[in-house]
Amino acid sequence: MKLFEYEAKNIAKAYGIRVPRGEVAKTPTEAREIAGRIGRGVVLKAQILVGGRGLAGAVKFAEKPSDAYEVANRLLGSKIRGEEVKMILVEERICVAKEHYLSLTVDRSARTLVYLVSSLGGVEVEDLVKKHPDKLLKLSVDPLTGYKHYYSRVAGEFLGVARGGGGNLDHIMATMYKIMRDYDAELVEFNPLALECGGGLIALDAKIVIDDNSLYRHPELREKSTRELAIYEQKARELGFSYIELDGNIGVIANGAGLTMATMDTILLYGGKPANFLDIGGGASRDRVKDAVKLLLSHPNVKVLLINIFGGITRCDEVAWGIAEALEEAHISKPIVVRMLGTNEEEGRKILLEKGLKVYNEIDDAVAKAVELAEV
Fold first, then answer.
1. Domain 96-222 - what CATH class?
2. Radius of gyration (C-alpha) of the chain in whole angstroms
3. What pLDDT is attached to residue 133?
4. Which long-range contacts (CB under 8 A, 24 or more apart) does 73-79 make?
5. Comma-separated ranges of CATH 3.30.1490.20 domains in the chain
6. How many Å apart are CA 216 and CA 222, to the nearest integer?
7. Which H helix or E strand runs over 38?
């Protein structure tokens, strides 16, 4: 779960990390009033949950409150990288001597946390690694011992930040570790972490990503957990499905994550494009199957629905009844291709044959048919 920049900065500020003075505006009038209270040049930053905002035109500058009104009027309601701008963070403009990159994230291959440090702030870390690998320092954190103060000495030397200045890099790095632990975060990032003209470090931008699996421990965040999801991802989460939205036109339903991914791979192999990943899980009831089918039949991007079931603890007759009931209730006519093997397979076939649906034995035959229908 991604937090908006202003939310991440509020957390950083509460933990004692310096951030620019600022407030959130939802109207141009509010933006003008905030700029007036700040009393100096301001930065207006669209609050959207996508990266690369600067290049996308989501970060603007204004010298006067009247300018802030005009900028906010253009930004609010606009769409940037597919997201509508509903809020703007208006904050003081900082005199910057140098921009750094600093983040704490999870290194899954090493099963530990790692600080990423660079003197090239403001760029995406992926681009940084490719173009300037020598400009990136990695400091692994032993989960058994936690944060150690020498990390900041190593990072400070790498960045060229003097021990007496630099706005207490040790405090910032130690606090990032505490935020990571307290919020069950996967990422705590300050980019850029700027050295001001008068000395001292300040987080000009902040990003925090929370592990979705930990939201039961953070009720204050739980209600916000679906805001970055597409409409059908939200609906699927409400129904309890493992679902990911993709950009194809062949809807995919299968039981088990491995089978679902194999089905998607096969679609791509045959020249088609899956519209989604939807795993109904093992032992799915007819109601669960019905909800899944109705969800994808209603999806405007889905031209063909491909259902791939391998019945172990999942009964094929229950799946068939779920498909049949969905067709009766949905009142939406789209081609459905079914491949079904396993427990009570013959009973399931009979149910679907009565509904005019052919059941395939081989996944290649089913996928080839689905791709053919999607191209029509």
1. alpha beta
2. 26
3. 85
4. 73/28, 75/44, 75/46, 76/26, 76/27, 76/28, 78/46
5. 21-92
6. 7
7. helix 28-38
Task: Write the CA distances from 55 to 43, 59, 119, 259, integer angstroms.
Answer: 15, 8, 20, 39
**Do residues 32 and 69 make contact, with C-beta atoms less than 8 angstroms apart?**
yes
Residue spans in the chain of domains classed CATH 3.30.470.20: 96-222
Domain 231-375, CATH class in plain words = alpha beta
Residues 30-40: tens digit of each pLDDT? 999 999 999 99
8 Å CB contact between 163 and 156 = yes
Examine the residue annotation and report whether 189 is marked as an active-site residue of this protein. yes
pLDDT at 162: 66
Mean pLDDT, the chain, rounded, equals: 91
Report the pLDDT value the prediction gives residue 226, as an integer from 0 to 100: 57
Cα dihedral sign for 81, 83, 85, 88? Answer: negative
Is the pLDDT confidence value at 44 over 70?
yes
Out of 101, 147, 151, 177, which one is annotated catalytic? 101
Q: Report the Cα 144 to chain-centroid distance in Å.
A: 29
Question: What is the reported pTM?
Answer: 0.69
Whether the predicted pLDDT of 167 surpasses 70: no
CATH classification (class only), 21-92: alpha beta
Long-range contacts of 122-129 (CB under 8 A, 24+ apart): 122/54, 122/191, 122/192, 124/51, 124/52, 125/101, 125/191, 128/101
Per annotation, catalytic residue among 99, 189, 318, 345: 189
